[in-house]
Specification:
With 213 residues, this protein is of the alpha+beta class. 54% of the residues lie in helices and 8% in strands. The two termini are 27 Å apart.
């Protein structure tokens, strides 16, 4: 089997999404750290892997993959016989496709703005904009109201088992739950239980441990 080589950064939500998938599938991989501060993601070498100059990028044999959600979909299907089944085999695919899109287009844009303001800005010594936080907290609350209704009917977003649709949320959840925004999750019992459940998965613990090495 070709060695999977992941070029990324341990603090990057997109990279964390790919690490989570690899650990869920119990696959060995080689991690190649990319120094964003030094601009390695804009180097000629990296641009040959991802012409958009964004992490992560993955090499599998002579294949070069980028866009984290496309990478996880590839891994889930290419290594379907390994580790956790992440695509609800034997069940309707429509809910999986829908909730993967919901994460990408409804949850992530708002979550990313909050993470930038509440996590990355303080990390880099810049000032958080309270107006941006307030605006996006309100938007996230509306999204989570819809999640609460869905999770009242289903243990996980797509079906009754853990899938890519749930897994894709983990990096943002990891950061948001360490900020005052966690109140938006805690105040919605089904969302709170779901977030706690998926965040306690052994594969995810390995992703978090990478940040402490």
């Amino acid at each position: 089997m070709a060695v999977l080589k992941v070029h990324g950064a341990v603090l990057s939500t997109a990279s964390m999404r790919v690490f989570a998938c690899l650990y869920e599938k119990d696959l060995d991989f080689q991690f190649v750290p990319i120094d964003m501060k030094a601009g390695q993601h804009k180097s000629e070498t990296f641009l040959s892997l991802n012409p958009f100059g964004q992490i992560p990028a993955v090499e599998v044999g002579d294949q070069k993959l980028f866009e984290s959600r496309a990478i996880t979909q590839y891994i889930a299907e290419e290594y379907a016989d390994k580790g956790t089944q992440l695509t609800c085999p034997g069940k309707p695919l429509a809910p999986l496709f829908v909730w993967k899109e919901v994460e990408a287009h409804q949850f992530d844009p708002v979550a990313s703005k909050l993470i930038w303001e509440l996590v990355y800005k303080p990390m880099h010594g810049t000032t958080t904009d309270p107006a941006v936080v307030e605006e996006n907290e309100a938007k996230l609350g509306k999204v989570l109201d819809i999640y609460e209704a869905r999770l009242a009917q289903s243990k996980y977003l797509a079906c009754d088992c853990f899938t890519l649709a749930d897994m894709h949320h983990l990096p943002s959840l990891h950061y948001l739950m360490g900020t005052p925004v966690n109140k938006l999750f805690d105040s919605r019992p089904h969302v709170s239980a779901w977030a706690a459940n998926i965040s306690s998965r052994p594969a995810w613990s390995k992703v978090v441990a990478m940040q402490k090495q």
